[in-house]
Amino acid sequence: MKRQLILEDGTIFKGNGFGSETGVIGEVVFNTGMTGYQEILSDPSYCGQIVTLTYPLVGNYGINRDDFESITPAFSAFVVKEVADFPSNWRSKWSLDEYLKMKNIPGIAGVDTRKLTKIIRQHGTLKGAICSVDENPLEIMERMRATKLRSDQVKQVSTKSAYASPGRGNRIVLVDFGMKHGILRELNERNCDVIVVPYHTTAEEILALCPDGIMLSNGPGDPKDVPEAIEMIRGILGKVPMFGICLGHQLFALACGADTAKMKFGHRGSNHPVKDLKTGKVAITSQNHGYTVEEDSISGTELEVTHVALNDQTIEGLAHKTASAFTVQYHPEASPGPEDANPLFDEFISLVEKAKQGDANYAKA
C-alpha cells in the first residue's frame, strides 16, 4: 500500500502505508522522543495533527493496555522512518499497525524523517496531507490550501460532563482541556478527591463544588480559542489555589493580562532542559506545545517568570505575585518522559494545605 505525504510548500515524500487507508489533512509536527509512542498517540494535545517521530524505529514494543493517556486517540496520522511489523514485549497486545487500523488512523513509513524535520524547523509548522500515491498532488495541494484547520480542538477532546475520581484527601477540581490521564493519576496517588469538569464550566459552577484546589490541564490548539476558560480563571484566581499545566499555563497567563503567540515549530519531546530561576536547578522535561507566553507581555502584570527553557529561553513557568497560583509549560506528569518535575504536584498539594490552614486560623479568629 503506497502512500505519499504532501506538504503545503510542494514537498512530497513517498512511502509505505500502515494503519488505516483513510486520507487526512492536518498540521505536521515532530516529536524528538526516543520512546513513548503509545503515550504520544493517545495524548489529546495532538488533536488534528500529523505527528512525525524523529526516532528511526517505531512500534518495536507494540501497544499494551496500560500506557494510554486517553481512551480515544485524537491525532490524525503518524509519519515514521520504519515501523516494526513484529513487536516484542511481554505486555504487547497489538502491533502499531493493528491498533491504528482499529482506530481508523493512517500512517506512512519509509519517510526520511530527518529531512522532514529539517523542513519544519526551517519553514515552521506546515499543513500536510497523507493520501494514496495515485492521487494528483496538485489537486491535493489545492484542497489542502482551502482547508481551514479546526479551532475547536479543546471542545473535541474535553469531557462532555463532569465526573468524580473519589479520594479521602483534598478536593481538587480538574478542568479538562484535553487532560492526559497522567495528571489524574498523580492526583489520585496523593489521595485527592478529584472532580473532572468540562472546559466550559464557569467559575460559579466550580466554586459551588467547594474545591480545595484547581488544576488546569493540558490541551490542544491556540489558547485564545478558549475565551470561556480565560473568564473562568479570572473568576477563581485568588479564591482557591491553582496549578496549570501546558495549555492551562497559557490560559492562566492570558487571564492575568499577558499574551501568547504561536511558535515556529513548537516543543515536542521528552528531552527539553528547563531551568528553575529560583534554585538554579535544571530539569529534563516532557513537552508538547505549539504556543508560548510572550516574555514582553509579562511586564505590568502580577506574574513573575519562574522557569525558562534553556534551548530557546522561552517562558516555562509562572507564578502569581499575590494569589496562590503557579503554572508550568512542560509536563510534570511525564508520560512519556523523565519525572524530574514530578515534585510540582507535591508543591501544589502543599499550597492547598497552607491555604486550608489559613482558612482555619481565620475561622478561629
Automatic annotation (TrEMBL):
<comment type="function">
    <text>Small subunit of the glutamine-dependent carbamoyl phosphate synthetase (CPSase). CPSase catalyzes the formation of carbamoyl phosphate from the ammonia moiety of glutamine, carbonate, and phosphate donated by ATP, constituting the first step of 2 biosynthetic pathways, one leading to arginine and/or urea and the other to pyrimidine nucleotides. The small subunit (glutamine amidotransferase) binds and cleaves glutamine to supply the large subunit with the substrate ammonia.</text>
</comment>
<comment type="subunit">
    <text>Composed of two chains; the small (or glutamine) chain promotes the hydrolysis of glutamine to ammonia, which is used by the large (or ammonia) chain to synthesize carbamoyl phosphate. Tetramer of heterodimers (alpha,beta)4.</text>
</comment>
<dbReference type="InterPro" id="IPR006274">
    <property type="entry name" value="CarbamoylP_synth_ssu"/>
</dbReference>
<feature type="binding site">
    <location>
        <position position="221"/>
    </location>
    <ligand>
        <name>L-glutamine</name>
    </ligand>
</feature>
<keyword id="KW-0547">Nucleotide-binding</keyword>
<dbReference type="InterPro" id="IPR036480">
    <property type="entry name" value="CarbP_synth_ssu_N_sf"/>
</dbReference>
<feature type="binding site">
    <location>
        <position position="290"/>
    </location>
    <ligand>
        <name>L-glutamine</name>
    </ligand>
</feature>
<comment type="similarity">
    <text>Belongs to the CarA family.</text>
</comment>
<feature type="active site">
    <location>
        <position position="333"/>
    </location>
</feature>
<dbReference type="InterPro" id="IPR050472">
    <property type="entry name" value="Anth_synth/Amidotransfase"/>
</dbReference>
<dbReference type="InterPro" id="IPR017926">
    <property type="entry name" value="GATASE"/>
</dbReference>
<keyword id="KW-0067">ATP-binding</keyword>
<protein>
    <recommendedName>
        <fullName>Carbamoyl phosphate synthase small chain</fullName>
        <ecNumber>6.3.5.5</ecNumber>
    </recommendedName>
</protein>
<feature type="domain" description="Carbamoyl-phosphate synthase small subunit N-terminal">
    <location>
        <begin position="1"/>
        <end position="131"/>
    </location>
</feature>
<dbReference type="Pfam" id="PF00117">
    <property type="entry name" value="GATase"/>
</dbReference>
<feature type="binding site">
    <location>
        <position position="250"/>
    </location>
    <ligand>
        <name>L-glutamine</name>
    </ligand>
</feature>
<keyword id="KW-0436">Ligase</keyword>
<dbReference type="GO" id="GO:0005524">
    <property type="term" value="F:ATP binding"/>
</dbReference>
<dbReference type="GO" id="GO:0006207">
    <property type="term" value="P:'de novo' pyrimidine nucleobase biosynthetic process"/>
</dbReference>
<keyword id="KW-0665">Pyrimidine biosynthesis</keyword>
<keyword id="KW-0055">Arginine biosynthesis</keyword>
<dbReference type="InterPro" id="IPR029062">
    <property type="entry name" value="Class_I_gatase-like"/>
</dbReference>
<dbReference type="GO" id="GO:0006526">
    <property type="term" value="P:L-arginine biosynthetic process"/>
</dbReference>
<dbReference type="InterPro" id="IPR035686">
    <property type="entry name" value="CPSase_GATase1"/>
</dbReference>
<feature type="binding site">
    <location>
        <position position="45"/>
    </location>
    <ligand>
        <name>L-glutamine</name>
    </ligand>
</feature>
<comment type="pathway">
    <text>Pyrimidine metabolism; UMP biosynthesis via de novo pathway; (S)-dihydroorotate from bicarbonate: step 1/3.</text>
</comment>
<keyword id="KW-0028">Amino-acid biosynthesis</keyword>
<dbReference type="GO" id="GO:0044205">
    <property type="term" value="P:'de novo' UMP biosynthetic process"/>
</dbReference>
<dbReference type="GO" id="GO:0006541">
    <property type="term" value="P:glutamine metabolic process"/>
</dbReference>
<dbReference type="GO" id="GO:0004359">
    <property type="term" value="F:glutaminase activity"/>
</dbReference>
<feature type="active site">
    <location>
        <position position="331"/>
    </location>
</feature>
<feature type="region of interest" description="CPSase">
    <location>
        <begin position="1"/>
        <end position="171"/>
    </location>
</feature>
<dbReference type="GO" id="GO:0004088">
    <property type="term" value="F:carbamoyl-phosphate synthase (glutamine-hydrolyzing) activity"/>
</dbReference>
<feature type="binding site">
    <location>
        <position position="219"/>
    </location>
    <ligand>
        <name>L-glutamine</name>
    </ligand>
</feature>
<comment type="pathway">
    <text>Amino-acid biosynthesis; L-arginine biosynthesis; carbamoyl phosphate from bicarbonate: step 1/1.</text>
</comment>
<feature type="binding site">
    <location>
        <position position="247"/>
    </location>
    <ligand>
        <name>L-glutamine</name>
    </ligand>
</feature>
<feature type="binding site">
    <location>
        <position position="288"/>
    </location>
    <ligand>
        <name>L-glutamine</name>
    </ligand>
</feature>
<dbReference type="InterPro" id="IPR002474">
    <property type="entry name" value="CarbamoylP_synth_ssu_N"/>
</dbReference>
<keyword id="KW-0315">Glutamine amidotransferase</keyword>
<feature type="active site" description="Nucleophile">
    <location>
        <position position="246"/>
    </location>
</feature>
<feature type="binding site">
    <location>
        <position position="291"/>
    </location>
    <ligand>
        <name>L-glutamine</name>
    </ligand>
</feature>
<dbReference type="Pfam" id="PF00988">
    <property type="entry name" value="CPSase_sm_chain"/>
</dbReference>
